[in-house]
Design goal:
By secondary structure, this protein is of the alpha+beta class. Helix content is 37%, strand content 26%. The chain is built from five helices and four strands, in the order αβαβαααββ. A four-stranded mixed sheet has the order 1-2-4-3. Strand 1, helix 2 and strand 2 form a beta-alpha-beta unit. The two termini are 32 Å apart.
């Protein structure tokens, strides 16, 4: 993905790093985003702490991932394997998807984790009949 980003944006700088130990100074950024990624990190608390560390006071974080474990979520669990068989080139890359989605906390539980790590919830929205959720947090 980095190679593709560099091709499309040759004047930009891209860095490969580890979210559990980011190569940035404390309070270096005004904002950060993470989309469909936090659920793939074993130490979610440390990842949230690192995001908090690199954000300036008052900095914003946008988090986007799966939402409530509802009927739409269950339909996703049924339809996804069929879509993977039909469309995915590397099927084994997607085997974890349903388990990681189902094991991931619902938005309200995640909000508590962020708030316990020094963030304040600014906004919460749901999409696709609550199957996807976004939250905007501010570092306090």
């Amino acid at each position: 993905m980095l190679d593709k980003a560099k091709l499309k944006n040759p004047d930009k700088k891209f860095i490969l790093g580890d979210i559990l130990n980011m190569p940035f100074q404390n309070e270096e950024f005004d904002c950060a985003t993470i989309a469909f990624g936090l659920r793939n990190i074993e130490n979610r608390t440390l990842a949230i702490s690192e995001i908090h560390r690199i954000l300036k006071k008052g900095g914003l974080l946008l988090h986007l991932d799966f939402g409530k474990h509802n009927l739409i979520s269950k339909i996703f669990n049924i339809t996804t394997p069929f879509c993977i068989k039909i469309f995915a080139k590397n099927k084994s890359s997607y085997e974890y998807l349903i388990k990681s989605k189902n094991d991931y906390p619902e938005p309200d539980e995640l909000i508590n984790e962020f708030q316990n790590s020094g963030f304040k919830l600014i906004n919460k929205k749901y999409y696709l009949f609550n199957a996807v959720s976004s939250q905007i947090f501010q570092k306090i």
